[in-house]
Amino acid sequence: KKLTLLREMLAGCGAGTCQVIVTTPMEMLKIQLQDAGRIAAQKKLMAAEAQLSSSSLAGAAKPAVETRTTATQITRELLRSKGIAGLYKGLGATLLRDVPFSIVYFPLFANLNKLGQKDPNVKAPFYVSFLAGCVAGSTAAVAVNPCDVVKTRLQSLQRGVNEDTYSGILDCTKKIWQKEGPTAFLKGAYCRALVIAPLFGIAQVVYFIGIAEFLLDMLPKHRA
Question: What InterPro entries does the record point to (predicted)?
Answer without folding.
Answer: MCP_dom_sf, MCP_transmembrane, Mito_Solute_Carrier
